[in-house]
Amino acid sequence: MYKLLPLLMLLVAGSAFAKQETLTIYTYSSFASDWGPGPAIKQAFEAECDCQLKFVALDDGVSILNRLRLEGKHSKADVILGLDDSLLAAAKATDLLAEHQQTLPALSVPNGWSDSVFLPYDYGYFAFIYNAEKLKNPPHSFAELLERPELTILYQDPRTSTPGQGLMLWVQKLYGEQAPSVWQNLAQRTVAVTKGWSESYGMFLKGEADLVLSYTSSPAYHISAEQQHQYQAANFSEGHYLQVEVAAVLKTSSQPQLARQFMAFMLTPAFQQHVASGNWMYPVIDTPLPDSFAELTLPEQALSFSTEQVSKQRSQWLRAWRNAVIR
Amino acid sequence: MTKRNWWLPGSLSLFAILLLTTGPIAALLLQSREHDLGALLNDSYLVHIIWFSFYQALLSTLLSLLLAIPLAQALSRRRFIGRTLLLRLFGLSLVLPVILVVFGIVTVHGRQGWVNQLLQAVGLESVGYLYGLAGILLAHIFFNMPLAARILLQAIESIPASQWRIANQLGFNGWQLFLRLEWPVMRSALPALASMIFMLCFTSFATVMALGGGPKSTTLEVAIYQAIRFDFDLPYAGMLALLQLLFCASFLLLQYRFTSRSTAIQLSNLGLIARPDRQQLSLRLWDTLVLILCLALFLPPLLAIISSGLNPKLIAALSSAQLWHATRTSLLIASGAALLSMLFTVSLLITSRHLRLQLQRRRSAALMEAIGSIILVLPAVVLSTGLFIMLRNVADVFTLGPILVLLVNALMALPYGLRALQAPMERVSRQHHKLCESLGINGWARIKQVEWPLLRKSMALTFALAMMLSLGDLSAIALFGSQSLQTLPWLLYQQLGNYQLTEASATALVLLMLSLGLFMLIEGVLGGKDAATN
């Protein structure tokens, strides 16, 4: 009997462990990774919910939506975190998402926020990042980037990634009908189109290209974490495309209570303090920013399309991109 | 098996195979009907990927053969240390997991790879050529050049010694030997060889996925996968899959025509052929050049996989729980797939052999075996796509993931199993059926006392081969894989994509060890015969 005792204890402990409820969140890999905000947020939320928080990391933002559509009603996700404002209509059309039922505090999101399904948790502006030690004369406008064929770039696939889609919208906003020729121009100096942000940023840091598509706030990471000031965002005179990152609860969630608790948690300082110094984006409530953010440039003009406009033309724009880059 | 029930195992197995193949095809047909056919003609992307699929396959085939012909000649003229080992390695290339070789190629030809390190060491600018057509070609040549060289070498060695003697007396030089002796035997082997390589390259998945780099160098096979996982465009995916099915079926028909025409190649182990052109200085130089070029393409990626195992950071990477979890999943799926594949194969063959030998119905038997091989026209991605679409509304395809991957892998190994076991099983029946009948040994007793002892070696080999094929699969797992379902190839693919090269080295090493272990089992037991390629 004594020999069995440890085994029995293990069984009891095991079942107690299993009883704790688990909240499953689909997100993108840079959010969930060790160096992203995920681990700290998991710890903070678990401390107040008496539950387990599980991140399922997918390639990038658009992949979350694709994965949701593939799984349909059988999805194991309770919450999805990491879509952006331009995907709202497409995501709602799946009919898989529930209302967040939160009373919104005053949010410091550009252009405000009033959606009943999606809650924003951070925002930022897309920008090309360069290494000032290597590239002494960065482009000062999108037009200049197009006129200088020697500049090599890395960006993400708009079919899988929200920054990639952001660039697509940026080009569409600035050039409209001329977008295909812009894509062909860019294709000449594109080193790689990666599935997610992490891959292309990793390649950029290894010196594979002059510029990489990321955010105006990305240099803050290098300043805060590495005391390196050479990584800078190229400031484009035409303005930068705005991205608001959002989360939502699934209708099919087996933990609706926990999921809503997480939604509320997202808008508290416990979550928001990790946004600036983990996800390197701007928080949506008034939160002290790390010193490094003082060195950042804010775009003179924030560009955006309405959600309806994007959802109406997204697949057409995607096709235009695809058809232009194969030429 | 009792005498009356001879038809049962084959029918059950055939039924299962047909269900598992026609179901997905029907699902694809239904789905693709929703696609607007008029828009297809204006879809420049579709036109591009079809063109690119053909273009890269054609180039891959041409380059592989153009290198293989002089390589086979050089190998028949020269004896050198390591020649036997090299020929063994050539056999290995066909069954190595594709993603493993891609890892090797990235290590050699990537931006931070050996070639660029060498260039930098001598003060030259580094070059980036890996992603896109060049990378795809490098990988396809790696796989197909050795295979082609081996088969062409066999062809050269099948030339009777008497002909060499006559040529010797006539004083033929190297060129005349090629025209009069080598080319005729090679020519009979080439059409079948070329069409096989073309088909392998046309449906190549892992290579194009990992080295394609963007929409510009995407093939039909990869576009099917992307239509589902990138765009969630099921009608488009269904339409692409049907198109791929159509292409593959026509290639196979063409190949069938070629193979039936060409004469079968006989292995004649002459040892050293007394070739009159062995001593010519210019040919010596030429052969050295050819060997150096081919080995420079073939050996470095293999060495890279092994040498990355010497990475000092490897110990940490090897202790990753994720890696061992993936290893376990891979082994479970591979052994399950191999078992199921064996079950299908043996059941089918029990019935077809009875049809052929006892009932003298040769045509029905051949038809049964042909239906079993039907899977050859169905690339893994197409089959998986069909299964995916078929089951999507019924169940959670990602929970069923392991079972679906296992099923697809089992079916993919079926044609190989049928080929490997058909002859041994028939031989046993020819030699022992009458005796068993007269002694009244039937059912379980016959299996235990007669069949199993005589067949177990062939079965073990077939099992190992099926396991090896499944161990390298990336097509099915790419569609059904997720964070909770990771096999070694899938893990390696993701690590390569994220530039986690240390972790990738560890995964590659484990995958290499498993594949090598199985390969040595196959090659070792058969004692150097072409078990893997036949």
From TrEMBL, chain A:
Xref: Gene3D superfamilies: Periplasmic binding protein-like II
GO BP term, pick one: thiamine transport
Top-level division of the source organism's lineage: Bacteria
Keywords for this protein: Periplasm, Signal, Transport
InterPro entries in the cross-refs: SBP, ThiB, ThiB-like
Cellular compartments annotated: Periplasm
Endpoints of the signal sequence: 1-18
This protein's GO CC annotations: outer membrane-bounded periplasmic space
Gene Ontology terms, MF aspect: thiamine binding; thiamine pyrophosphate binding
NCBIfam families per the UniProt record, alphabetical: sfuA (TIGR01254), thiB (TIGR01276)
Protein family (similarity comment): Belongs to the bacterial solute-binding protein 1 family.
UniProt-recorded name of the protein: Thiamine-binding periplasmic protein
Record organism: Oceanisphaera profunda
Organism ancestry: Bacteria, Pseudomonadati, Pseudomonadota, Gammaproteobacteria, Aeromonadales
From TrEMBL, chain B:
GO biological-process terms attached to the record: thiamine transport
Residue stretches making up the ABC transmembrane type-1 domain: 50-255, 327-522
Superkingdom to which the source organism belongs: Bacteria
Keyword tRNA processing found: no
Keywords: Cell inner membrane, Cell membrane, Membrane, Repeat, Transmembrane, Transmembrane helix, Transport
GO cellular component annotations of the record: plasma membrane
Subcellular location: Cell inner membrane; Cell membrane
GO molecular function: transmembrane transporter activity
Predominant location category: membrane
PROSITE patterns registered for this protein in UniProt: ABC_TM1
Pfam family, one: BPD_transp_1
Signal peptide: none
Membrane-topology annotation of the record: Multi-pass membrane protein
TM annotation in the entry: 12-30, 50-73, 85-109, 129-153, 189-214, 234-254, 285-310, 330-350, 370-391, 397-418, 458-481, 501-522
The keyword Transport is annotated on this UniProt entry: yes
Subunit structure: The complex is composed of two ATP-binding proteins (ThiQ), two transmembrane proteins (ThiP) and a solute-binding protein (ThiB).
Family: Belongs to the binding-protein-dependent transport system permease family.
NCBIfam families, per database record: thiP (TIGR01253)
Protein name: Thiamine transport system permease protein ThiP
Organism: Oceanisphaera profunda
